[in-house]
Write a structure and sequence with these properties.
alpha/beta; Rossmann fold; 2 domains; 9 strands; 47% helix; globular; binds S-adenosylmethionine
């Protein structure tokens, strides 16, 4: 293709990419996907059920059709199968609150030009700070993302058939791994390390799943909290490595190795990039999130994880794709 034959359409859509975040976030805020799933078929019906204007409902429907999340045909508007699976409220995989959270974060992206100039966050409210209110909203919103990943990891580790195992979740957030795995295995027990206010949220959510009696929390900074020695069969380090620098990752992974019984397995879940940083696309984009919000974080390469895990005392290391943009790394 020559330069004369090129059209600016793709770049126009990228420049206006915030429309996608806005339309999806606004539709999620008004539960439009849930109302469509329940049978609303046009702008007037949606407006009435959602308590919004008919003009606003039509605008969101047009945007959602453009984004490929809603289809329009003879019978009116319907969710695509993708929207029905991931945006209808009440399903464990629902990403609706995450869409609303990202809409609220949109202003921060406008600071990216200055952030890249100075090489890090412009405020002190970074992910490293204790009691950062950011986490309280984030951990609940991202729990749905981790459901397919926790399920994939459980299959790889045969968690359901593992009997009386002890699980350690470092920075466990919503407790989604514990909730999922304790539900699969009635003899397992889990301990989560996180900040106090986050553990309070996790205790509530894990109890709602009916497995709270086998779930213990330790409040504090995971850099300075003792993990114990040779006490756990499985450890989880999910979406933590991307906020830490290499030295802290090595130190934390070594502490986890010490907390695992001989032969125990570490499960890392994160957005891992190829060694030449040519992909995958989601992980490459996520590096900007960490530049905005952390002092040392980024999306790390497979080679980085391999080197750190080896230094931390692991030798059997494998990488596994999941049904999400995240990769699971198993290390023994
Ligand atoms: C991105 S969330 C990941 C939550 C969970 N592991 C998941 O994958 O859904 C990061 C979690 O680490 C916790 N965290 C971050 N820094 C921490 C620290 N220094 N000490 C304890 N917890 C920390 C946050 O409170 C949050 O729950």
């Amino acid at each position: 293709m020559t330069a004369d034959e090129l059209a600016p359409d793709r770049i126009m859509r990228l420049i206006n990419g915030y429309w996608a975040t806005g339309i999806l976030g606004a539709a999620a805020s008004h539960a439009l996907f849930t109302h469509l799933e329940a049978g609303a078929r046009d702008a007037d019906q949606l407006a009435e059920r959602a308590g919004i204007s008919a003009r606003g409902a039509q605008t969101l429907l047009d945007g959602l059709v453009s984004l490929g999340l809603v289809e329009v045909g003879d019978g009116g508007y319907r969710n695509t199968i993708e929207a029905a699976t991931f945006l209808v409220e009440g399903k464990p995989t629902c990403l609706s609150s995450f869409a609303q959270l990202k809409l609220a974060h949109m202003g921060a992206v406008s600071t990216l030009p200055e952030t890249v100039r100075v090489g890090g966050p412009l405020t002190d409210a970074t992910v490293e700070v204790a009691d950062n209110p950011h986490w309280e909203k984030l951990v609940q919103a991202i729990a749905a993302q981790s459901v397919p990943v926790a399920t994939t990891a459980a299959e790889l580790l045969r968690v359901a058939e593992a009997g009386e195992i002890s699980i350690l979740d470092v920075g466990g957030g919503s407790g989604i791994y514990s909730a999922t795995w304790l539900s699969l295995n009635p003899a397992a027990r889990a301990t989560q390390l996180d900040w106090g206010p986050i553990n309070a949220i996790a205790r509530r959510l894990v109890a709602e799943r009916g497995v709270g009696d086998r779930f213990t929390c330790v409040d504090g900074d995971f850099h300075t909290t003792d993990f114990g020695t040779a006490v756990h069969d499985i450890a989880v380090y999910s979406h933590i490595a991307h906020q830490e620098g290499p030295q802290d990752n090595i130190a934390l992974l070594a502490k986890i190795r010490g907390a695992l019984k001989p032969g125990g397995t570490l499960v890392i879940c994160d957005f891992v990039v190829d060694d030449d940083r040519s992909g995958p696309p989601f992980a490459l984009l996520f590096a900007a999130e960490m530049l905005l919000k952390s002092r040392q974080g980024t999306t790390w390469r497979q080679a980085d994880y391999h080197a750190w895990l080896t230094k931390a005392g692991f030798d059997d290391i494998s990488f596994h794709p999941t049904p999400s943009p995240a990769t699971v790394i198993l290390a023994r």
